Amino acid sequence: MALSENATIAAIREELGEAGRLRIELGIGDDAALWQPSRSDRSAISTDAFVDGVHFRRGSTALDRIGARAITASLSDLAAMGARPRLITVALGVPDDMTLDDIRSLYRGIARIANELGVAVAGGDCTASPVLSLAVTVIGEVRASHVKRRDGARLGDTIAVTGLLGASAAGLRALDDPRVLAEPLRKRAIDAYELARARVPEGRWLAASSHVRAMIDCSDGLGRDCARIATASGVGILLDRIPVAPEIAALARATREDAEELALAGGEDYELIVAIATPAFAHLRARFQRRFGRELIAVGRCDAQAGVRWWRSGIATPVDRYGWDHFEVGEMR
Predict the structure, then answer these.
(1) Which residues does the UniProt record annotate as the domain PurM-like N-terminal (predicted)?
(2) Which candidate, 144, 136, 152, 121, places its Cα nearest to that of 35?
(3) Which of 27, 49, 271, 279 has the most crowded CB, counting CB atoms within 10 A?
(4) What phi, psi does 222 have (nearest 5°)?
(5) What pLDDT digit, counting tens, does each position of 128-141 carry?
(6) Residue 233: which of 302, 160, 296, 161 has the closest Cα?
(7) Alpha helix (H) ranges present in 3-140?
(8) What is the number of other CB atoms lying within 10 angstroms of the CB of residue 244?
(9) Measured at the alpha carbon of residue 10, what is the angle toward residues 7 and 14, in degrees to the nearest 5?
(10) Candidates 3.30.1330.10, 3.30.70.100, 3.40.190.10, 3.55.40.20; correct CATH number of 31-146?
């Protein structure tokens, strides 16, 4: 029987029962769990696994970049909750062909991201493993009144993203086939994939606004991650714009593919997808531009029709399955 990510998570949640709810305000099913240490604050906790051959290729990506990328992906989950990261732990699986210098390089990348965001690497574990793997746990804190979950979107809300989409997907394709992009776009695309940035400052700033109703990080593709907001919030989402990064646009021209479809499905840009009360959107967008020097881009609207659709050429096409599922075979992230 083929597994799917959503079905697997649902089965785990069912089997855990009360063990998955003890003193937990928000458990399995969002970007991070929420624990209540006090009336006014919440701890946000998230864990991600990264395995050679599934999430990266050790032979084609420098070890410091593998370390940095693993930490970034985990911190992006806290950004989506509006949390400030505080602690990181890393459980490392080490294959027998890795040297001490290799491990130093890996942790050099981890330390760089941690230092940039003022996060402490508090420890972890090491074990022998057939392939290189990292299990990263991140712990952050957020005011209870600032927590943004997936289930807060309402009918009529504007759906926006914090940046262009598809550059990371173009970088992965360029690693697989150097011919699809010419320099300097090829280097820019690979950097976007290997050196993606978690939108932690943006997430904390957005979370402080009562007009922001829901957030999720765009790790698995705009279509699939919007579907998670829609399902959790009990709304539909109609997308009417796909903000295409120049790297994926150039790749699409070279390969005669559809740039918007590639950007829609790509994922791992780690931009934030945000549901915002529509009357407040223009003002919030202007403030975001002044604060971060980049646009908060409207891509659609919440409505009453189930699922996520993409309005294009006068037709609304379902796009819920555009994106990445961790149990689909034949793909590498």
Answers:
(1) 29-142
(2) 144
(3) 271
(4) -60, -45
(5) 999 999 999 999 99
(6) 302
(7) 5-16, 63-81, 100-117
(8) 21
(9) 140
(10) 3.30.1330.10
